[in-house]
Amino acid sequence: MKKYVFLFAGLMTCTILHGQVLPSLQVVPDAEAFGRAGISAASEATAFAWENNASALAFSDKRILSGITYGLWTPSVSGSKILSASFGWKKDRLSLGLLGKTFRSPAYELYDDNGVANQIVERFSPSETILGIGGAYRIIPGLSVGLVAKMVSSSLAVDAKATVFSADISATFRKDAFQAGLVLAHIGTPVKYSESGNSYTQPTMIKAGMSYEAVKGLRLLTQVDWLVSGTLMAGVAADYWWKDSVGVRAGYHLGSRTQGTASFATLGLGGRIKGLQLDAGWAFLGDNHQNTVFITISYVI
Question: What is the value of pTM for the model shown?
């Protein structure tokens, strides 16, 4: 029985709306970073720094960092769901960790073409899964480096699946209230969804960010992202923690409608008590991202 994809709905969701293959690599993994519109190259270390900037973990004063995130991505356009988890362990100058993320789009219908009109054969849900391992090391008091190796499995259709390897290399410089981060992200093998099909490059990008703690608890951040394919994006954000217990944040990402991530603005809230942290991030404005929501629970000691 021959099957065909109705209007290629899943393929449209995963590639055209994001302008790149492997869209899950460009989606932030946690609510705290999303509340700053994804600006995280020069933020303080969290459990999810393995995807944002692994080298920042070498400056953490915590021994264990762990967290889990649920997100509803671009509900007005694709309604994709995201689940990510991360774990990190630190001793002296060295940090090691694991990460995982799944990105699943709504199912579309497969139809029979053997003469039975509108006969649905089955439903298929496009998805991507990332599994990774990383390390970070503080070389000297103000400088650290990080490396993350990932395996990415992408399934756009019944007969369109690919598994690739990807890596991120990062560095962080910190002096007093100033911090700078540089990340070369998504370097890896070509993406090929079938033996006879075309090969695609991963969405390799360079992220450069700076942050400054203007007053105690208030950090101002800025970041520039350059997709090697030729797209430049940028953003600004602010993050404030009151007595290290209640956090508020906001950010704006200036992006591209056709490549990378479109422009959007976000707000975020957070709370901490005895190592447990709860964060939420919400996009209240954006070309495609409006009403995207992330919720994260973290535990650090």
Answer: 0.89
